[in-house]
Each structure stands twice: as structure tokens, then as C-alpha cells.
Amino acid sequence: MIRFVLTVVVLLSLPLSVRAEVEIQEVTSDRGLTAWLVEDHAIPFVALEIRFRGGASLDAPGKRGAINLMTALLDDGAGDLDARGFARETEALATGFGFDVSDDALSVSARFLTENKAESMALLRAALLEPRFDPDAIERVRGQVLTGIRADAKDPDSIAARTFDRIAFGDHPYASSLNGTEESVAALTRDDLLAAHRAVLARDRIYISAVGDITPEQLSTLMDELLADLPAEGAPMPDRVEVAIPGGMTVVPFDTPQSVALFGQPGLAQDHPDYFTAIVLNQVLGGGGFESRLMSEVREKRGLTYGVYSYLAPKDFGEVYLGSVRSANDRIAEAIAVIREEWAKAAAEGITQEELDDAKTYMTGAYPLRFDGNGPIARIMVGMQMLGLPIDYIATRNERVEAVTLADVRRVAGDLLDPEGLHFVVVGQPLGLETTAGN
Amino acid sequence: MLRLPVFAACLALLPGLAPASDEAVSTFLLDNGMQVVVVEDHRAPVVQHMVWYRAGSADEPKGSSGVAHFLEHLLFKATDTLESGELSATVARNGGRDNAFTSYDYTAYFQRVAADRLEIMMRMEADRMRNIRLTENDIETERQVIIEERNQRTESNPSALFGEQVAAAQYLNHRYGAPIIGWMHEMQTLDMDDALGFYETYYAPNNAILVVSGDVTPEEVRRLAEQYYGVIPANPDLPARIRTEEPPQTAERRLIYRDARVAQPYVRRSYLAPERDPGAQEAAAALTFLAEILGGGTTSYLADALQFDSQIATYSAAFYRGVSLDDTTFDLVVVPRPDVSLQEAEDALDAALAQFMTDGVDLAQLERIKLQIRADQIYARDDVDRIANRYGQALASGLTVEDVQAWPEILDAVTEEDILQAARDVLDRRASVTGWLMREEAIQ
């Protein structure tokens, strides 16, 4: 029942002497499905993660929102069970299923007790292979999606994100909300949902990981029973998008006391040779926590905001480098001026040796802390597979961080950070800010 | 209220519903009255170190709402031995994460870090329990930060503004009626004396609970705790936690909040309800089930009645927060479909509640919920920080270790009659608050 098992033992080095051990096995089933497994029989349950690459970006032309609605309906009636029957069954098994879709993947998260494995997987199989898309369920969930779309239209964060995506991604699916519009969602038919299902849930784009009380043999059987009957191929992947963001400012008037600003510029792909250096640079410039330059200058010294961040956002088919800040309407202009200054200063001068050392200690020390439970480990492993990382990546990751030099950061800061090219989208009634020409 | 915003919140399936059986939990007291809880999990070399103070927004003096949360922010400034920001920088330099949060009944500080760094965390946390040194510049700057935090969480969010009004209407005489973050006009006046007054009164070992979870032993925690916390003298003048109580509610209260930013109008109903009391958690246990049965998701009674059978609502839910020092609330929410008015939604809600009293509890549903609670005892072992949080929250809210450990059995013993009695006692419209969140009316 099992074709191939490859085991890699990975030691997670913590600072000083402490070590954590994650033993990842690559399991290949009879019917050719592959998963990464961490076997751990300490607690009698299993976390299972499945991803289908492409996600909501595979919406057919004119059908924006179909894949999102399809995903929301997967467990809303499947096989012999209607929506409520399916929910009652999952409760009776104390099983949890999560279905979600993003720009790049449809994700399935499952958690089940060892003693309920067979019944839980039968339910999940029904949701993945035999969703019913009953007309009453479609109307009920369509109503919920439309409620969300209307709420987003009055939410400053969503307005900012939509506006920025339109500027950054042109006519690519990334440019529009995966929820669709009121019009596009209202027009979706049951056939559209069936087509969306065929487009996304296929074996040629699947990634699987499991952690917990399960052996490689059991996982192999489970994968074949659960997933091998999916169609071999789905819809072709979207094209890459050439991100071209003009520098400047777009103000979206909205009557609220605090402005929301989303800012960004073109980013770096995760497989770019400078990606790790860029991550270290960003940790210093605007990464999480109180220690970044942006937090220090905008919040700690000036009290202009509750939070300011920047982060690299590499999607599968296009990359941006983003940040956000919120300040009262009469203070947002100052917050933005400080951010622009910090962007320019880092571009011109890089960072200091002390900042580099602190960022490395933080990043290498914090990495093992992520592996704190079956579910989190399963999600990390499925993410690694989607990025095409090697199975021993975990052991080498901190070395890659350590290898970054001050000269590397200075060079990448100069190449990557583009203070003139930074574009701010501001939603609110910001004093002293106006949309720049050409936007 | 967190000092630092976080991107994702974790919602447990059944918050607060898990158990003691397989948990490696130890508890003890230091000589100065500081309570200690240790939850062991040796699967990964990581610890979470938390200190909870039995002091939250409901303990604030009148006129300085928000000072508990303001002080929480200020505890990241300088002490006798640490520079401003040095504590968080030290945690980060050790590969860890830290943050803090304030609620009605408690304020808590925590770090998550490699297990061999526990001592550094304790040394710094013990230091700021007594030794903060604030400047007027700290007060000015950080006050701006909490005002921006209120702007972000509340002023920018019609639902949050509405929730404040509902709570204020619910509590006539108890401080749960004031928001944790504070009323804006009072936040603007918070000063050094307000912050230090709260600090001197409540930040002391005999008002604190240390909770350490992860790869540690109780012996190691005791040794370090005695060294760093044990040397801090108790505050002999710690006031008893006696607050003004609510009078009996004798009039139905109704309110309408209008805001142009509202995309989705909805109805919210709130009833005053008993909380989990030490040695007397049965009524709260029944209410916990009532919330789950009425509004806990797709299979709940209200979802059946309002989302499936009549399709009046796009969403319905019930909430009950049992861990609370004083009387808490039982809340219902109905979000109507766009073509359904708020009056129709409210009428449908009341009709469904009345029908529930006639129909009684679906025993199969009750059994499923109990089974999930038992299963959660297994799942909880994968996340000991959640167990640690549960102890911290309960102990800071007037419960004992025994209460926390008895809770799963008390839940398991709840019967249909207990649940219906709790419903009869609490779901009395004459003692309720009903709020409508509405759009600004269009000007013709």
C-alpha cells in the first residue's frame, strides 16, 4: 500500500544549546500521490493539510467569485448529506474541517481523532469529490458572500487593498477581489460552480502534509482513498504579471476620523537569490515587533500610530513589497513623510552591523518557535512544498539567514528600495494629502 | 486591548471548555502571596511566561477610564535597570516574542521564547512589577498611541461603537459599562498620576499570578520564581475587589445606533447573566450549553430557525462569556437578509426563542456538544499555551484552580432541564437591552 518513504531528520537549532527535532518523511502512495509526514504518536489525533495551487486566480473570464463561492459550499451539503446533516456528522466525530481559498491556493485543513479516522476521511472525501451545490445552499451562501462584498465596500482597509491591487496588478486576477462583485456573484449559476470545482480540485496541483498519530502506510492508503479519484488535470495556471507601480499618492475620500494608508512598490520572488537578504533588511526596516525603524520612528518617538509595518508579499505569479499605517486624519501626512524618509535613508545607507546582528538573532531564534503543534507543522510543510523547497530546508534555513552580510544588505537595499517609486493609497479625509497626477 | 496589534486571532471551537485530566498542571503559592501555575509540555524546547494582574478596566477609578490599558503600554518604558524599549528588544534579541493585553478584570504580560531563556524573562518581568520610571514625554507620546489605537479599533468601526453603546446601556452601575480602552474624552486627560496611582495600588506579587507553560518543570519554575518574584514585598494595602453592583433590571432598554459607514444592519440583544463563581459554576455551565445550542453554528437552533427554515437571516449567533468577576452578559445577534427589516428580524428572533422553550433541547445535539468537549481534552494537549491562558484568565477573574479543574465535569453533568431553567432565568425580554445598528437615513 505504499510505494516510497524517504526520511529526513532535521535538527532545529535554537540559540545556545537547545535543539528541537522534526523528522520529515516523504510518502509516495501506490497511485502516485506524495505527502510530507511527521509521525508523532504522543497525542491520538492527526492534522492534515492539502493545497491546490492556483486558487481563486483560476476564475474563468466573467465569473469572478465562482471559486470563492464554490469553496464556501464544499461542506454545505456533500454526498448523501445536506448542509445540516454534514455539520451534524462532523460534530458527532469531533472532527474539524477548514476550507479556504486565496489568490494562489485552495486550502483544506482537517483535524481528526485517530479513532474516527475512517469516518472523518469519508466525510472529507464527500466534500472534495461530491459536493452537492444544492440550489437552496447556493442561495444561502451567495447571500453571505454578498453581505461580505457590501461590507468590504464600506471598510477602509478593504477599499485601500482593492485600490492598491488595481494599481499594482493591471488586468491580472490579482487586481480584483476574489470574492467577486455584487453583479458577478449574483449571476453565478450552479454550472459555473461545477466548472470552478473542475478547474481547481485536480491532482496535477496538489500538495499534502500530515502530522500526528498516523504511520506512512496509513497515510498512503488515506491519500489514495481520499484524493486519487480527483481528475488528473485542472485549468491552466494564470500568466505571470509584470508589476508596475507608479510612484505617488492616491487618496480615496472616506468619512472616518482615522486614515488608512497602504503603501508599496515592486517586490522580490521567493526564489530570487537576494530574497533572504531582503527579508533581513525588512526585519530591520518594518518587520513585526517594536524594534523596527518604522515602529521606532512613527510610533515610539512620535506617537503617530498604533502600528506600522512593511512586508514582502511574494505571490506565485507576481511580487510586491507592501506596508501599512493608520493615523488620525490630521497626522497621517506626517506619518507618511517619516516612512518616505526611512525608505530613502535605508536605500542610501543600508543598515548598521548592530541592526543586522539583532535581526539575525531574532530570526534564527524565532524560527523553531513556529513548530509548536501538529497543525502549525503541517501548514509549514505544505507551504515548503508549494515553494519547491527541499525536504531538508528546515535545517538549512537559519544558515541562510546567518550567511547574509552587511554588504549584501546594503547592496539589496540600494537595488530594491525605491523611495521615489513608493505609492501610497490613503483612505480617509487626510489633511494635506492629494492624489498625484497620472493616478 | 493589546499593546501591539496582531494580525490573526485564534478562536477555539468551544472557548474555555477543556479539562484537567491529562494536563500536567502544578500550582503553588510564593510566601509573598504570588500564585504560580506550571503547565508542562516537553515536546519542544519552548516556554511561554506570563504574569497576570488581578486589575483591569473595571478596577479603574471613576473619571480615568482607560488607565489600566494605558499603564499596560507604559510598562514597556524604562525601569531602574532597563531602558525604554529594552525589555522587548531583549526578548527579540533572544528570538522571542512579547506582548501584553488588558481586559475588564485583568492585565497580562507574556513572552514566548526558547526554554533556556526563561530566567531572563523572569528577571525583566519582576523588575517592571515595581520599578518603572516614567517621563512626561512617555506619557505624552504613549497617550497619542492609545488614542490612535482607539481610532483604529473603535472610532473607525461602527460595530465597535455600537457595542460600546449596548454595554453602556446594559450596565447602569457597574464598570463593565465603560470600554476597556476608555472613553475618548477621559483618555485625553490621562496623566502621570493616574498611571502611577493604578500601578502603585495593583502591581504587587500578592495581586499577581505567574503562569509558565511548555518545556519546564515545576521545580525549576519554583526556584526561579522565588529568586526573582519571591523577593518582592507584598502590598499590605491592596484593596479588596469590591465593585458597585448592578441593581435589578426592571425596564427593557432599547437603542438605535446610526452610522453612514454601516454596510450591514443587524440586531443585537443582551441579557444580564450570572458568571462562573467559585464553587458555584452550575448556572454558568448551563448557559455555556445554551449559547452553543441556540447559536453555536450551522447546527444550532437559531441557525435552523432563521437561516435554514425561514431564511430571514444571513447570520445568527449566541455568545456567553462565563469567565468574569461580576455579572456577565448573554448575547444574541441576528443579521437579516437585505430584504428583511430589523423589526422583522427581531420578531423572528423572539418567536424562535419562544418556540425553543416549547420544543426543548435536542438531546442528540446536547450529546454531540458533550462529545466535542471530551475530544477537546485531547486536542488541547497539542496547545499547552491555551491551557495556560485558561488558568491565568480564570484565576485573575475570581476562580480557583479547583474551579478550573472541576469545570469539565460540571459541564458533562449539565442536563436538558438545567439548560431550560437557565434559559427561563436569563432570556427575559423585560430585563434586556436590544440594539439596532442602522445606516444613516438617506436624505431625500
From TrEMBL, chain A:
Location of the Peptidase M16 C-terminal domain: 188-361
A Pfam family name for this chain?
Answer: Peptidase_M16
**Ranges for the Peptidase M16 N-terminal domain?**
39-181
Q: What SUPFAM superfamilies has UniProt attached to this entry?
A: LuxS/MPP-like metallohydrolase (SSF63411)
Q: What is this protein called?
A: Insulinase family protein
Q: Record the organism.
A: Roseobacter sinensis
Q: What is the lineage of its organism?
A: Bacteria, Pseudomonadati, Pseudomonadota, Alphaproteobacteria, Rhodobacterales
UniProtKB/TrEMBL annotation, chain B:
Q: Which Gene3D superfamilies match?
A: Metalloenzyme, LuxS/M16 peptidase-like
Where in the numbering of this chain does the Peptidase M16 N-terminal domain appear? 36-181
Extent of the signal sequence: 1-20
Q: Which cofactor does it need?
A: Zn(2+)
Has UniProt tagged this entry with the keyword Protease?
A: yes
Which keywords does UniProt give here? Hydrolase, Metalloprotease, Protease, Signal
Q: Which residues cross the membrane?
A: none
> Can you give the residue ranges of the Peptidase M16 C-terminal domain?
190-372
What InterPro entries does this protein map onto?
Metalloenz_LuxS/M16, MPP/UQCRC_Complex, Pept_M16_N, Pept_M16_Zn_BS, Peptidase_M16_C
Q: Does the keyword Acetylation apply?
A: no
| Family, as annotated | Belongs to the peptidase M16 family.
Query: What is the protein name given in its UniProt record?
Result: Insulinase family protein
Which organism's genome codes for this protein?
Roseobacter sinensis
Q: What is the lineage of its organism?
A: Bacteria, Pseudomonadati, Pseudomonadota, Alphaproteobacteria, Rhodobacterales
